[in-house]
C-alpha cells in the first residue's frame, strides 16, 4: 500500500511517499480503507521532532490522526461493524498513522458515518472534535445549561468548542 512516511525528523522535505506493507489487524480491530484524512498541527510538530520526548516512535513514522473510509477487514472479536461500513475514527497513538491507504483501528474507537456526510467532512472531526469534547466535558465538567466563553477559537478545536 502507499503511505506518506518520515524516516527522520525535519521539515516538509522529509515526507516521502513509499510502498509499505498493508497492516495486519488484531482480533479487536478493523482495517479501514482510507478515503480521507486531515492535517493537524500535531503532524508538523511530530514531523519536526518537537514531540519526540513524549511520542518516542521508531522510524519509519506514518503521520496522521484522523481517518474516514470503509471497513475492508473485521477482527474476529468485533461486532456491530461489517466489511463495507462507512466509518471514521481517531485511531490509537502509534507510529502507524492515517497518511496511508489502509489504517488499523480498534473497534471501540470507530464511529459510523451518516449517509449524508462526505469522507472529507468526517475526517475533519475526530482529533479536533474529541479534543474540544475532552476539554469542555471531561476536564471542564461542562453540563447542560452552563455557559462558557471560547477565546480565540478560530482553529479546529476552538470551532468545535
Task: Please provide a written account of the structure.
It is a single chain. This protein has 161 residues and is α+β, with helices and mostly antiparallel strands. The strands form two sheets. The protein has a five-stranded antiparallel sheet with strand order 7-3-5-6-8. The model has no long low-confidence stretch (mean pLDDT 95). The protein contains four helices and eight strands. It has two domains: 2-118, Quinone Oxidoreductase, Chain A, domain 1, CATH 3.90.180.10; 125-161, no CATH class. It is globular. Helices cover 19% and strands 24% of the residues.
Count the E strands. 8
From the coordinates shown, what is the CATH architecture of the largest domain?
Answer: Alpha-Beta Complex
Cα-based radius of gyration, to the nearest Å: 17 Å
CATH superfamily of the largest domain: Medium-chain alcohol dehydrogenases, catalytic domain
**Termini gap:** 36 Å
CATH class of the largest domain: Alpha Beta
| Major β-sheet annotation | 5 strands, antiparallel
Which percent bin holds the helix content? 10-25%
Shape: globular
- Strands of the biggest beta sheet: in what spatial order? 7-3-5-6-8
In the residues, how many domains can be counted? 2
Q: β content, as a range?
A: 15-25%
User: Which class do the helix and strand fractions yield?
Assistant: alpha+beta
- Unreliable runs, pLDDT <50, ≥5 residues? none
CATH topology of the largest domain: the name is Quinone Oxidoreductase, Chain A, domain 1
Mean pLDDT: 95
